[in-house]
Design brief:
Elements: H1 5-8, H2 29-56, H3 61-94
Helix pairs in contact: 2-3
Length: about 100
């Protein structure tokens, strides 16, 4: 899903291309982060659930492998984002006031 920057945050009246136009309602950044976090948790939960079903022998092997792959990719993405956030925080802390 590709979203234009103007769709994420409404233009500030009097500044830039949005000058003179009424603010556009859209999702804020926190909503996008919340949705991504919920989606990540759901993906991890599905992977765990199908893994348990695979061990019990009640799930199809291809479904188990796909769910575990999705969960692994999600975990790697979340870990990479965490590392970037920590790095950005450390950079901000090092800035002189």
């Amino acid at each position: 899903m590709v979203t234009r920057i103007g769709d994420i945050t409404p233009p500030i009246p009097g500044i830039g291309a949005g000058a003179g136009n009424a603010p556009v309602s859209g999702k804020d950044f926190a909503s996008y982060v919340e949705d991504a976090a919920k989606s990540s948790v759901n993906t991890m939960y599905q992977g765990e659930t199908l893994s348990k079903a695979g061990i019990a022998g009640t799930a199809d092997l291809t479904e188990v492998v796909a769910a575990v792959n999705d969960a692994e990719l999600t975990l790697q993405t979340v870990a990479a984002l965490r590392d970037k956030l920590v790095s950005a925080y450390q950079e901000i802390i090092r800035m002189p006031i």
